[in-house]
Amino acid sequence: NKILLRDKILAPTLLSKNYSKNFIEIEDFGNQTILDLFKKKKINKFRVYMQIIYLLNKLQSIRQKKILNFNNKVYEIPKYTSKILEKEAKLFSEWYIRNKLKKSEQKKFKKSYSEIIKKLIKKINQKNDTFVHRDFHISNLMMVKNKIGVIDNQDALIGNPTYDLASLIDDVRIRTSKKIKNQIYNYYLKKGPKIYRKNSQKFRQDYKILSVQRSLKIIGIFSRLFVRDKKKQYLKFIPYTW
């Protein structure tokens, strides 16, 4: 949050802390997410997405990777490595397939699945040099006095610029048409760095690979929330995630 605030991005400020007693108090952005806003009838969604792309560009312009935290220790945003991407994708084979395949078939599936994921990740072109929020969807974007604030920033990594774009466009919590998905993607390319337009095919390939990886991860996470934590409400998102 401190890194975001330094770059004039609206994030919650720290109000007070007693970290030794496991307590911090941060700014409350209220309860109106962009998702809530979209549930209202007369909303031009694409205009809102234009504002979100502006915010995403600001996030991706962050160059500071280190900061002194409230314990006076240096915190550095970690890299979004291939190993992390593979580990995330593994959530699908660990949690979703346990109720879909016989035990005798699971081992063979996991091996084959792991090989496919590794091959896909090797095809990624863009460098890991961009601030990635990692959960950049409209439930984590808040309306704060006519501005958009961003929450849930603690898992940020330095990774591929297409990841947050895929999170936004292929958000599993809201159904959007192919038309608006393409509009958002094209608007991002128009407003983003020229190099993405110059290498548009490679950029598009990264976007597709990371969208697939992310969707498989989400199916795994939602399955885990149901199986392990008895949170049934997440199952309704799985068909759309597919």
Summarize the structure.
The protein is mainly α. Helix content is 50%, strand content 12%. The protein has helices spanning 2-6, 34-38, 45-60, 82-96, 103-122, 162-169, 178-191, 194-198, 200-227, 238-241, and strands at 14-18, 23-26, 66-68, 74-76, 130-132, 141-144, 147-150, 157-159.
What does this 3D model show about the protein?
- This protein is mainly α and 242 residues long.
- It has 10 helices and 8 strands.
- The protein has helices at residues 2-6, 34-38, 45-60, 82-96, 103-122, 162-169, 178-191, 194-198, 200-227, 238-241; strands spanning 14-18, 23-26, 66-68, 74-76, 130-132, 141-144, 147-150, 157-159.
- The strands form 4 sheets. It has a two-stranded antiparallel sheet.
- A hairpin with a 5-residue loop joins strand 3 and strand 4.
- It is globular.
- 26% of the residues are buried.
- The model has no long low-confidence stretch (mean pLDDT 95).
Fold blueprint:
Layout: H1 2-6, E1 14-18, E2 23-26, H2 34-38, H3 45-60, E3 66-68, E4 74-76, H4 82-96, H5 103-122, E5 130-132, E6 141-144, E7 147-150, E8 157-159, H6 162-169, H7 178-191, H8 194-198, H9 200-227, H10 238-241
Antiparallel strand pairs: 1-2, 3-4, 5-8, 6-7
Helix pairs in contact: 3-7, 4-5, 4-9, 6-9
Q: Give the amount of beta strand, in percent.
A: 5-15%
Mean pLDDT: 95
The ordered string of helix (H) and strand (E) elements is: HEEHHEEHHEEEEHHHHH
Shape call: globular
Indicate the structural class.
Answer: mainly alpha
Work out the radius of gyration.
19 Å
Helix segment count? 10
Largest sheet: 2 strands, antiparallel
Distance between the termini: 32 Å
The quaternary structure here is: single chain
Could you estimate the helical fraction of the residues in percent? 40-55%
* Low-pLDDT residue spans: none
The total strand number stands at 8
